[in-house]
Write a structure and sequence with these properties.
By secondary structure, the protein is mainly α. The protein has 15 helices and three strands. Helix 8 crosses helix 12, helix 12 packs across helix 14 and helix 13 packs across helix 14. About 25% of the residues are buried. It is found in: Cytoplasm.
Length: about 325
């Protein structure tokens, strides 16, 4: 029954939207309880360089759950590369096969330990799904240890650097983009997807759709509201997007363009280290904690599922920790 549903959803994913697929999934779940379906036995033919059906179905399930297009593409590339470079059926893979694949991949590509462990996590997600779907009995990745990597602590912008960035922003779009990133703490993917209708200037709130299309609200301070109003008032296009390209056809601003704007602002500001949208998100979180926000409050604003992720920002604020220590330990 489950296999029939998976295959049906995989085929329909070429023609239906994610919302439509969810409805079909719900209908099939109910209908299939009333029938018995027996699969015809046929010879299995393996075609080289084709995507295994299991991977197709897995990606469809992730799409239904609301995974972003960029994340889906990352999962797809990772799994296709894996499938094309092993000589076995994906259902017959062992822990040693995965260890060997990761070792060969590391030697063949110039990647860090963190990127390599990301591949392991994608494979783990895929095989956990296959266990849940009763396609295989055990997840082989469970026996593959996480790859230890030296995590570099990203230092947030100092208050001086923050003001330097503000002063270096030249265009109305640059000013609005920087202030919105800092005030909301949004991910760059969330900024890309924002529409003008997501902004409520009366309440200073922004409706954001985060990972898995989960809705939450972020907030605009006075600076960001003023910068956004000026930018939107200057626009001559009819696009629904909050941030758009400067030239026709005024497409929604993409990840590369946003990163380029922030990089250029930092260069003009004379900041001698890489500055990118996620560093501004780090800065927002650290400044909130420094000024008295709790971890739970920062977690809610940033849209973190796990408190452990938010805890990273608390570790960054060593200066504040030292100040507290000096007050308490005489």
């Amino acid at each position: 029954m489950e296999k029939f549903k998976r295959e049906a959803l995989t085929i329909l994913s070429n023609y239906l939207t994610d919302d439509d697929l969810k409805r079909v999934d719900e209908v099939l779940t109910v209908l299939l309880t009333r029938y018995e379906i027996t699969e015809k036995t046929t010879d299995i033919v393996v075609y080289k360089n084709e995507i295994p059906d299991e991977i197709k179905s897995f990606l469809v399930s992730k799409s239904i759950k609301g995974l972003t297009k960029s994340s889906l593409l990352h999962y797809k590339r990772t799994l296709i590369n894996f499938a094309n470079n092993i000589s076995k059926d994906v259902k017959e893979i062992t822990a040693n096969d995965i260890r060997l694949y990761l070792l060969k991949y590391e030697h063949a590509h110039t990647i860090g330990k963190s990127a390599l462990d990301d591949i392991r996590r994608v494979l783990n997600s895929f095989y956990k799904w296959m266990v849940r779907e009763d396609i295989i009995l055990k997840n082989p990745v469970e026996k593959v240890d996480p790859i230890k990597c030296d995590k570099k602590v990203r230092q947030p912008l100092t208050m001086l650097e923050l003001e330097q960035m503000r002063n270096a922003a030249e265009t109305l779009r640059e000013k609005a983009l920087f202030e919105t990133l800092y005030s909301t703490g949004c991910r760059v993917s969330e900024i890309i997807n924002l529409n003008k209708t997501d902004i409520d200037f009366n309440t200073g709130r922004v409706k954001v759709y985060g990972k898995g299309k989960k809705e939450r609200f972020c907030f605009l301070n006075a600076r960001s509201q003023l910068a956004l109003r000026k930018y939107l008032f200057s626009r001559k296009d009819n696009s629904e997007a909050l941030f758009v390209a400067d030239k026709q056809p005024y497409n929604r601003l993409g990840k590369g363009s946003i990163e380029k704007d922030i990089k250029n602002i930092a260069i003009r500001a004379g900041i001698n280290r890489p500055v990118f949208p996620h560093l501004i998100r780090h800065t927002t979180a650290t400044h909130m904690l420094h000024n008295g926000a709790s971890l739970a409050e920062v977690q809610a604003i940033l849209g973190h599922e796990s408190p452990a992720t938010t805890q990273i920002y608390a570790k960054l604020d060593l200066q504040n920790l030292q100040t507290i220590h000096q007050k308490c330990i005489i």
